[in-house]
Amino acid sequence: MKKLTLLMSCVLIYTATMAQMINSTLTIFSEEGHKFYLILNGTRMNDKPETNIRLQNLTQPYYNCKVLFDDKALGEVSKNYLPVTDPGNQTQSMDVTYKIKSDKNGKQVLRYFSATPVVITATPVIPPDVVVYNYGTTVPVVQTTVTETTTTTTGGTGANVGVNMGGVGVNMNVNDPNFHSQQTTTTTYTTTTTTSSTPPPPPPAAAGPCSYAMTAGDYASAKASIEKATFEETKLKSAKSIITNNCMYADQIRTICRLFTFEASKLDFAKFAYKYCYDKNNYFKINDVFDFDASRDELSTFTAQ
Predict the structure, then answer these.
(1) Which residue, of 62, 92, 186, 232, has the greatest Cβ tally within 10 A?
(2) Residue 95: C-alpha distances to residues 15, 216, 296, 302 (Å)
């Protein structure tokens, strides 16, 4: 019991530390210039459709992402667990870029494009057509406008000739036949700073006691701890203790259920874990672990209450 308490304390400390360390950036753009709304963890990021969006100050290792196109005929694109950190080191902040493109069937899909580690001392180069948001607050967007001014000057070489003939003065302008014009072009660069008109709201908390789910690294450690238990009863107690302090995704709960031998244990944990599931809308996935329809029906009835 002491070992389990120590493990849980380490997990909580690690999770809190990691949340403070991560400060990733996510850029999503449409390769074909389609305007879209970006939904991150259930919250719409932009108040009007854009073709290129950049999000800063992302503190989680991955997010649930959905793209809704302004052109309804293009449908939508969804991707769960979109990573914004280094898969091998989830505390490493990354500047990650994904692109929206057409697949071979003409369907819009979201594909990885590039990723570089975030350098705190470096100033990012942001193109003027990219709309930038801080995750949860407004952020100044620096835009550069190029104004070109053209000035035309006409002129030539010539002389004014005065002739006095018999007391009559005659003035004559004599121009060089090599008349020419001169054109001067001046280019002015004007930099303006604006802010997004509607700040995106802070990351939403899931219903119930969960504000975020376990990271992949923490989950792997917890799963290994549960697997070490010899007896089914001990394994079930360990799993319940862990999820009480660390919310999980439905997929993670499903994997834990499969660690149990008996149907009753799987159902017991599935019902207990529902309160601590971060994405309850995906809880139907748990039905895969049961051998009997009666268990599926009982869980469905329980979650519908």
Answers:
(1) 62
(2) 21, 20, 42, 42
Residue with tokens 């069937």: 105
Q: Tokens representing 213?
A: 């789910």
Question: For residue range 21-80, what is the model confidence (pLDDT) as tens digits?
Answer: 678 889 999 999 999 999 988 888 888 899 999 988 888 888 899 999 999 899 899 988
**Which CATH class for the 22-143 domain?**
mainly beta
Domain extents for the chain?
A: 22-143, 216-303
